[in-house]
Amino acid sequence: MTESEYTELYTATWKKTVNLCKKLLGTEYIADADDCAQEAFIELWKKREAVTVPAEQWVNETARRKCLQVRELGQRYDQWGMPLEMEGVIQCARRLK
Hints:
0% strand
C-alpha cells in the first residue's frame, strides 16, 4: 500500500469507521470511538506490507477489536495507555510533593 492509497482510504472511510466504533462502544464509551478508529488506521500503516485482505475490511476488523478491548477493560484510557481514573491519583500525588 502506497502513501497515496492509504490517504485515499483514510479520507474515504474515516467517518464510517468512527461511526462503526460509536455503534460498537455505545454511549458509555463513545468518547473512545475516535481513538479506536485512529489506532486501527495507525496499525494499518505499520502493517501495510503484510495486509492480505482488502484494506477497508482490515481496518474495520481492527477497529472492532480495539472497541472490544475498551469494553472488556471497562475503563477509558488516555493517549499514553494510562487509565483515566489514574490521572487523578497522579495529579494528587504531584500536589503533595
